[in-house]
Amino acid sequence: MSKKMNFVPDLLPKPAPKARAKEGEVGRRSFIKLLSALTAGAIAMPDKAEAFNLDEFLQKHFHQMTDEEKQKTMARLEGEYNKKYSRDDFSVADGGPQHGVKYGYALNLSKCIGCRKCTHACVDENNQHRGSEERGDQIEYIRVLEMEKGSLDVEKSVHDYTHEVPAEGKYYMPVQCHQCNDAPCVKACPVEATWQEPDGIVVVDYNWCIGCRYCAAACPYWARKFNWVAPRIPDEEVNPDTHYLGNRPRYKGVMEKCTFCITRVRKGLNPACHDICPTGSRKFGNLLDKESVVRRIIDQKRIFILKEEVGTDPSFYYFFD
Amino acid sequence: MVDYLTFVFKSIRGMFTGGTRYRSWLAFLMGLMAVGGYAYYQQTVHGLGVTGMGDQVSWGLYIANFTFLVGVAAAAVMMVIPGYLYHNKEVKGGVLLGEMVAIGAIVMCLLFVVADLGRPDRMWHMIPPFGKFNFPVSMLAWDVLVLNGYLLLNLHVPGYLLYKKYKGEEPAKWLYLPFVYLSIIWAISIHTVTAFLYTGLAGRPYWNAAILAPRFIASAFCAGPAFIILVLEIIKGWTRFPMGDRIIGFLRGVVLIAGLINVFLLISEIFTEFYADSAHVASARYLFFGLHGHNALVPWIWTSITMNVLALLALISRKFEKRGVIVRNIPLLMLIVAIWIEKGMGLVFPGFIPTPLGEIVEYMPSANEWMVSLGIWGVGLFIMTVLLKHAVDIEVGDVKPS
Lengths: 321, 402
Hints:
Shape of chain B: globular
CATH topology of chain B: Formate dehydrogenase/DMSO reductase fold
Largest sheet of chain B: none
Helix content of chain B: over 70%
CATH architecture of chain B: Up-down Bundle
Distance between the termini of chain A: 9 Å
Structural class of chain B: mainly alpha
Largest interface: A-B, 72 and 64 residues
CATH superfamily of chain B: Formate dehydrogenase/DMSO reductase domain
Strand content of chain A: 5-15%
Helix content of chain A: 10-25%
Strand content of chain B: under 5%
Number of strands of chain B: 0
Oligomer: heterodimer
Number of helices of chain A: 10
Distance between the termini of chain B: 16 Å
Order of helices and strands of chain A: HHHHEEHEEHEEHEEEHHEHEE
Number of strands of chain A: 12
Strand order of the largest sheet of chain A: 10-2-12-11
Shape of chain A: globular
Radius of gyration of chain A: 21 Å
Radius of gyration of chain B: 22 Å
Number of helices of chain B: 13
Order of helices and strands of chain B: HHHHHHHHHHHHH
Structural class of chain A: alpha+beta
Number of domains of chain B: 1
């Protein structure tokens, strides 16, 4: 480790589901109470009930829409989001992949100190659900594993550490979507709601996903996250600069995932996790460009692929130096 | 056409006429449906967050029940083969009943999958040309196809045969026999495809094992016929349906042999996992012995194995075969429960524990989830009941042309 830095993780990791006890309470009420609630018609709709929306119901798959339909849909979505988050500056873009670009990520395990700043910058950028009172389940795309020195076995890792980092005898391995070229999640989806873009990013059409979660079962990197409840983002925390296939607000009951910050990278910026990292462990770039930093790392350093044996051909590499 | 409509009308009227016991049973099942309907309403309003599932264990009770019921549905083939291929007259007389059970089971399978969807309103996304159906790449797409196909086959064959019986005509062979043969292969395929759903996932070592599909078939042909025997016992005891004695004896034999094969495959699996003691053993260790102090499934799986072994010993000894209707069927009931546990607590849940990143989060279904599941069982048993009643009505001549 180059420089000893002490960080206290700035947010406690999400509580284990045991702490989500409240969710079962609907059913734990006595049957009689339940019946009386029924007869009294006392079933309260939640405050922000998602009203049925015909345009949304009939919305086509992203690939089936004409450019004109896409523009119309995105304008409609901007209006909906502005209304929902009491703003007037929402933008939903659909910027496409650039020719000759294939994104890759390299992460320096010798430098990472496990501070989880990447995890939280990601949540801010990508408009993830901030957790509900009942479940306390903020959606996070990056899970930082505290690993035993001398072992690459993730089963020995600790996910919910709260002590100062880096700790003695440990190293840290952040894991997020590996944007696999032979992605099991893409194969699994029964409705083609998830696919790999030509620049390597695996995306989800949030208006096409049926929420079967087969992709989540298929992913070897535990990178796919589901909206178990209607996602909640405080108005003042929402990021209005969005992409159709990326960080636009999601719906209850659909899957989402890391897109290497598609909104940013398709504008030539780096992902949010890359820019926030205080140690410089994260390197991002174009795998097809021999001069790019990622390409130089792959060519010159000792790199490895997590779970290479699963054979998904990821665009995400780890290295030591 | 008018003939057919009269048939449908009379059949439906027949389905809902019966003694007090019959009607109370239907009322009870409707009660279950009401409970399930209420719980499902809660789920659609609040999201799948009302279940015990989470990103760590992202499939639970619904998919477990689905997997178990695919086996029950496939089991009808155990009567179709001797009945139609080997022309065993006695078994042939009961085939229709087995197929009615299959219809109810398939409907439950489909309902359990729908209950598990985050966006059931978008189911049309699967139907071409409006939707996009990821066939043949996605195993789930295959499963949707084979299940619906199996449902159609099982609606057509008994539907046609019963109508002909009602009219007192000989059925035309070419109108049903090809479908019967097709349904034999199809029955094996529904359970195989369901197994492939799991074994195809390289990122889940607990499921990514070739033994899974054979084990699925073995356990299906154990629990499924056991379930059918219980149904036959009820029909035999409470209706005038002409049922031979040997059909139940034959099915008990099937249950025993399939059960023994299932246990053999289980032993092979346990040996391979634990003797080598590789890194892949974590899920199995969690299931059978607990892992790092987490052991929610341990009592379940040992209960299942104990019941499995005891029931098979009872079947081998043949001591209970001639006893009263309750005693002789207890081993079968035990096998059904044991294999139901084996599919859910033994197969689906531990596949997610630990997660691919090594995190251990335990899962137990929430009350709301149990209620939805009960409701779906209510629907399935209701469908089975009225269809079986219909088959009996036609067979004994309670419903006939005027």
